[in-house]
Every structure is written in C-alpha cells, then in structure tokens.
C-alpha cells in the first residue's frame, strides 16, 4: 500500500509492529516484533483509534456489507499477500495470526479480498507465493478459484453466495434456447456417464457448458456466470460419482440393473438414509 500521510502519532503499535518505509520505491511494509501461535491475538480493532468511514477508500477496511473502517493507525501499513500471516476478523474486530502462527521478523500481511467486496484500485500481486492469485481486486471481481482456500469474512461469504445464487438462477433460465442439437449430443454422453441415470436435470446441466456462446473475456457478469456454472457442474459430477460408487459398493448384484435403469430417487433417499436392508 502506498504511504499515506499519517495523522496519528507514530509508531502507533511499537510493541508488535515495525513499519519499514522505502522512500525510493514509494512503498511501506510491516514486520512483526512478536511471536504468536496459530490464530493468536495480534491486535484489537478498537474505537478509538478506529472510526467508521463515511465512504470506502483504498485506506479503509470493510467490516460489513455497508460498513467501512478507518484504522487511523500504523495497522494501515499491513500489505496484501496471497499467503498472509494475519487474518482481519471483522466480526470479532480483531487481527489474529494465520494458521502458521507468527514469528518476529515475519512480514505482516493479510488477504485484502477477505474484507473487501469492491476495491477501487485492483492491482497485480507480486507476493511471490506459489499460490499467488494474480490480479487482486475486491472479492466481487474475483473468481471462486481465486478465493478457494482463503479465509474470508462473513460479509464476503454472504455476498459471494448471493452472487452465485443470482448467477445460477440466470444460468438455469437461459440454457434451453441455445443449440438444441448440441444438447441432444451431450445428453447421450451424459447418459453413458451416469449408467443411464441421466435425468432431464442432469442432462441440461451437462449440455449447458458447450452451448454458452463466446463473449468478451473481461465481461464480469459473464465471468461470474461461467464460474457459477462450472461450480454447479463440479457438484453434479461429484454427486454422480458418489452415487455410482455407493451403488456399486452396496448392491453388487444389481449393478447390471442399475446400468439399464439407473437408481431412482426413492433408492437414493432410502439407501442414503441407511434404512434399507441389503
Ligand atoms: Zn499474490
């Protein structure tokens, strides 16, 4: 984060944080002065010095759907990393160590999209982590794959779920009108895949992907919809595999039968519930 002129007396957290300013490169970073176990408390976000911001800026931290915080302290100089050493837990208004704990000299970092839904200034990350997510923006503008495995605050998880539900509804409403011939072809493939168990629901999902027409890669709505679709397809495929292996394991004698007609929803609910004797 580029240095901003502090209006607080520095250093604000001398016991736990060293702020290192690189005037030549116009950058700052922070390193830890303390050791902490995994998820140990690093600092509380208290009022004061924190204040609720009138509007989000590149220097605020989002703590709820429509709530942003001015830190008004050196905690502002905690940079982004895709393998962060810290977690900003805004529900509990604390900064805690990440799952690896903290050692003196470790750079203090957190994952910006874990708090920010919308970022005015997206940037290319050069954190150097093997899992670097590349272009860092607010969670709104990142894919599920980019956010997978990262600790995210409740308001971000909620907003992501709403985005995906909206995308799934839009995807479900759209596919029938595109390329029916292709759908038939895919339906055959899907039927083979599922040992004949392909219901209209699963064929439609399987056929939707090839039918999506080309669109500008930078269209965020298209990206979000594709992401939601891919997510749904993975879920269907996982359920299909789980069902197939369950049926194969529980009813070896009737596998041939299953190949012809596929399991019914009654079998699913009954057997998965474990109340059917074999
Ligand atoms: Zn990175």
UniProtKB/TrEMBL annotation:
Keywords linked to the UniProt accession: Methyltransferase, Transferase
Superkingdom, natural source: Eukaryota
Renumbered residue ranges of the record's region Disordered: 255-278
GO BP terms: methylation
InterPro entries membership: Flavunoidine_N-MTase (IPR053201), Post-SET_dom (IPR003616), SET_dom_sf (IPR046341)
Membrane-traversing stretches: none
Stretches assigned to the Post-SET domain: 121-137
GO MF, one annotated term: methyltransferase activity
Signal peptide: none
Alphabetized PANTHER family for the sequence: HISTONE-LYSINE N-METHYLTRANSFERASE-RELATED, SET DOMAIN-CONTAINING PROTEIN
Protein name (Swiss-Prot/TrEMBL): 4c36e3c8-b16b-44bb-bbbe-9cfadd504ef7
Lineage: Eukaryota, Fungi, Dikarya, Ascomycota, Pezizomycotina
């Amino acid at each position: 984060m580029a240095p901003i002129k502090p209006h607080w007396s520095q250093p604000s957290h001398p016991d736990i944080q060293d702020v290192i300013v690189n005037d030549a490169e116009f950058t700052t970073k922070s390193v830890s002065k303390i050791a902490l176990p995994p998820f140990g408390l690093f600092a509380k976000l208290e009022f004061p010095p924190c204040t609720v911001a009138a509007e989000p800026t590149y220097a605020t931290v989002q703590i709820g759907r429509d709530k942003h915080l001015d830190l008004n302290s050196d905690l502002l100089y905690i940079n982004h990393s895709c393998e962060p050493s810290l977690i900003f837990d805004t529900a509990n208004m604390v900064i805690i160590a990440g799952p690896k704990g903290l050692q003196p000299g470790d750079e203090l970092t957190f994952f910006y999209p874990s708090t920010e839904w919308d970022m005015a200034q997206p940037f290319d990350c050069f954190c150097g982590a093997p899992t670097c997510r590349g272009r860092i923006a607010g969670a709104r503008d990142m894919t599920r794959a980019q956010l997978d495995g990262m600790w995210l605050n409740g308001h971000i998880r909620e907003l992501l779920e709403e985005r995906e539900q909206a995308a799934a509804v839009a995807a479900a409403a759209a596919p029938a009108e595109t390329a029916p011939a292709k759908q038939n072809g895919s339906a055959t493939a899907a039927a083979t895949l599922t040992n004949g168990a392909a219901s209209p629901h699963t064929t439609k999902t399987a056929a939707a992907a090839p039918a999506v027409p080309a669109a500008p890669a930078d269209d965020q709505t298209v990206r979000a919809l594709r992401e939601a679709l891919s997510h749904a397809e993975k879920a269907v495929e996982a359920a299909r595999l789980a069902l197939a292996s369950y049926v194969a394991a529980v009813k070896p004698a009737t596998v041939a039968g299953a190949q012809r007609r596929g399991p019914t929803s009654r079998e699913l609910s009954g057997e998965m519930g474990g109340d059917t004797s074999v």
